[in-house]
Design brief:
The structure is a homodimer of 251-residue chains. With 251 residues, chain A is an alpha/beta fold. Helices cover 45% and strands 13% of the residues of chain A. In chain A, helix 8 (195-206) links the parallel strand 7 (183-185) and strand 8. In chain A, helix 1 runs parallel beside helix 3, helix 1 (12-25) packs across helix 11 and helix 7 (166-176) runs parallel beside helix 8 (195-206).
Chain lengths: 251, 251
Amino acid sequence: VLEKIPLKEGNTEARIIHFYSSILDASPKVSALKPNYAFFAQYGFEGLRALRELIAKYKGKYPIILDAKRGDISTSAGAYAREIFEFYGADATTVSPYTGSDSIKPFMQFPDCFSYVLCRTSNPSAGELQSLKAGGKPLYLHVAQNLAALDEGKGLLGAVVGATAPKELRTIAKVLSPAKGPLLIPGVGSQGASAKETAKILKRAYGENVHLCLINASSSINYAYLEQKTEDFAGAALKEIERMNKEIHIR
Amino acid sequence: VLEKIPLKEGNTEARIIHFYSSILDASPKVSALKPNYAFFAQYGFEGLRALRELIAKYKGKYPIILDAKRGDISTSAGAYAREIFEFYGADATTVSPYTGSDSIKPFMQFPDCFSYVLCRTSNPSAGELQSLKAGGKPLYLHVAQNLAALDEGKGLLGAVVGATAPKELRTIAKVLSPAKGPLLIPGVGSQGASAKETAKILKRAYGENVHLCLINASSSINYAYLEQKTEDFAGAALKEIERMNKEIHIR
């Protein structure tokens, strides 16, 4: 968010681009970028132009997951897929499962693009619906099994599972790992879950395919300079990334 | 969608604005406008500029429901609420319930703005999750009761319920009508549900408060000129609106 970007020059668009480029041009060891659509969209067209420009700048260098949590029915879902994969040029996105499979299928029509379906999210109220039991199984497990069935082993669909829910993470990893379904895992860093514990769970389920699991941290990296009490925000971000990578031993 | 807009002059932005303005400037008897974010966003910035301009043009004349189906956790939800209510200036929006109440609360912080929570949608795969029974109750009923509890009778939250599911519509109307919770009802028109039957169900539940229920048709109105085999798309839309209004006897 703009209030935490320690750059005063230029308009909103320029400041956002400058901030993230400084971090990324320092070549951090990260597996993917996951821009959150909401944080750009709140600044209107300036924010969205910055988003598009950043994607164009780093596409090919990192896989880009545009975290947009779209969730609408068939023809609308198709329009959203075009927005994300064609207009913004993202490689992957996040989608909501509430409206069922006809909202997810249009996202599977784009060659080389894939989607993470919200399964068990990392927020405090996640369980209100996601942990309800139907037919002896919690809702998030229905979602995981449905998406695995829909994917038919193609690897076009993965799941979003919060590291803040390790028991659920274990269950979902068990469903998706046999067919090499990818996982996107928020919740470490400022949301409080341990990167080390999370990595352990993932290695046990995925073994040598653990690279299919992406552990995601945003605020704790972007705003590491606040924690480290320095003005060198890019340096602070790199340091935090290195610290986390060491903790998870993935790279 | 652009392919169905029978106007060849101007760029994408101009054609979208011209098309919808022509219909709306003919003063149709409608209760609200419900632009679908996806259909504008698929055309990138030109589409989004048209969306914003149309909202600015008709704000105050009609309540504007920006159908964006946002659904993300707390701070992201707050950013989405700013996008919808501040940047686009909509009066209302649609939100997904999958991540629970902390994704809905930020939308309740905007004075005079309200939100429709997806409850039972109108699409073929809606039931996959929404009809699962937990604790003897289908998921959509959990959602309806949760949102009624969260709203505490303030009237800031309503529900999206497809007219294609009349039994579910009846159940949800029963939950929300005592506290005058508004309903947004897609599914009539090109999706096949009967406007007349829908209006009957709503009148029975809401009585004199039936104006809180908005029956929504989009394609069948916008593209009525195709059905009516005419080039006068604004006239055809008016004719279809009048036909529907007569059927539901609401105005």
